[in-house]
Amino acid sequence: MITEESWWDKFDTFTNYFMFLALIVSSILALGSVKSSANSDLEYFLYGSGLFFGLYGFYCKFTEKHLKEIKFTIHKEDAKQRILEYGKKYNYRISKISNNLIFLNEPTSGYTLGNYEKTIMIFFKNESILYTLIKEGARLNVPVLFSQHIVRIDLKKILTQAKIKNKTKKSYFSLFFFKD
After folding, report:
1. 120, 106, 111: which is closest to 140 by C-alpha?
2. Edge-to-edge, what's the strand order for the sheet holding 93-95?
3. N or C: which end of the chain has fewer CB within 10 A?
């Protein structure tokens, strides 16, 4: 996906790449300097974790604007309805509803200056959706690195579930006399 970037976005991208590369290089150098002993397991674990996190963050930043695909077998209109219900359930601000596009917007944390949002862009194809997660402002935020997986799991679940059951609250009287 190609988007227009401001100078702040380019600086943020450079800063993220630099930080993750610095973490990767320092972890590799630290792993090379660890002396094998009975107590070196903790050092290997800490430096290995730093290396893994640096590689993961670099990969996430590099693939940030690539669209991910989820296939489904239900009707396209039913899929749209399920995604809109998901957005309402989790209090997303839903915008850009059209034939093949839905934006689900969520405010980012209150710790940043300005009103920034995290947006899930969902494009509909024949029997699949293409989606990505974009965050306005400074993207160096650890939960964004992991929330993309949570969104993927949620979208897969709602698009592959057989039928959405609407549970209605039963009254005391109907529990005794009416069966499902």
Report:
1. 111
2. 68-71, 128-135, 117-124, 101-107, 93-95
3. C
